[in-house]
Amino acid sequence: MAYQTFQQEYLQIPVVTRAYTTACVLTTAAVQLELITPFQLYFNPDLILRNYQVWRLITNFLFFGPIGFNFLFNMIFLYRYCRMLEEGSFRGRTADFVFMFLFGGLLMTIFGTFVSLVFLGQAFTIMLVYVWSRRNPNVRMNFFGLLNFQAPFLPWVLMGFSLLLGNSIIVDLLGIAVGHVYFFLEDVFPNQPGGGRWLKTPFFLKMLFDTPEEDANYNPLPEERPGGFAWGEGQRLGG
């Protein structure tokens, strides 16, 4: 019974969020069990180009470090905001969501080459948080019960939290920068005088991922609780 309940809940997670978070958890578990090592996963342009280890283009987004507070913190935020994006502004637009993943991943890979980052998963999480926060500007957030602020400030609050923990903020800045580029090209520039839509999802992605009908039993997460936990809980203004 417990397994069936877990399976049902697991299958309720939208497909992109389910695939990405599962891959991250399994990759971390494989490292923890010493089936693989981080040295086989990290981003290294020389090994990719000269030794054709192309899997590093993907695996560097899947490893968030050993299991601990930092890993759990990142997984919670990754799962919550990835799912809320997929069930919110990308509902019924799976191909567009996958294209955002590809676009963001490509930009981070290019930028990561110049700033010598070897794992980009945390930056990718910040990108998802940034896009969600800009598309939900009226949501009020509460961080650890200490700070109250509007959703667009959430990525910057997370960056400040990383700074307090002694982590490099380059990762956070990269996620914010890539998230802003996507948000500007997708949400801002097309609505400007003389603007246009530069980001167009390839047709083959639409053929692969978009389906004409939605599951009537689909149960999205409520966006009234954008963080889902004490450090990210919020509510819409005027609600």
From TrEMBL:
Key word Endoplasmic reticulum present: yes
GO CC terms in record: endoplasmic reticulum membrane
Pfam families: DER1
InterPro entries: DER1, Rhomboid-like_sf
One record GO biological process: ERAD pathway
Membrane topology: Multi-pass membrane protein
Keyword Methyltransferase: no
Segments traversing the membrane: 57-79, 100-133, 153-185
Keywords (A to Z) from UniProt: Endoplasmic reticulum, Membrane, Transmembrane, Transmembrane helix
Subcellular location: Endoplasmic reticulum membrane
Domain of life of the source: Eukaryota
Cited function: Functional component of endoplasmic reticulum-associated degradation (ERAD) for misfolded lumenal proteins. May act by forming a channel that allows the retrotranslocation of misfolded proteins into the cytosol where they are ubiquitinated and degraded by the proteasome.
UniProt similarity note: Belongs to the derlin family.
PANTHER family: DER1-LIKE PROTEIN, DERLIN
Protein name: Derlin
Originating organism: Coregonus suidteri
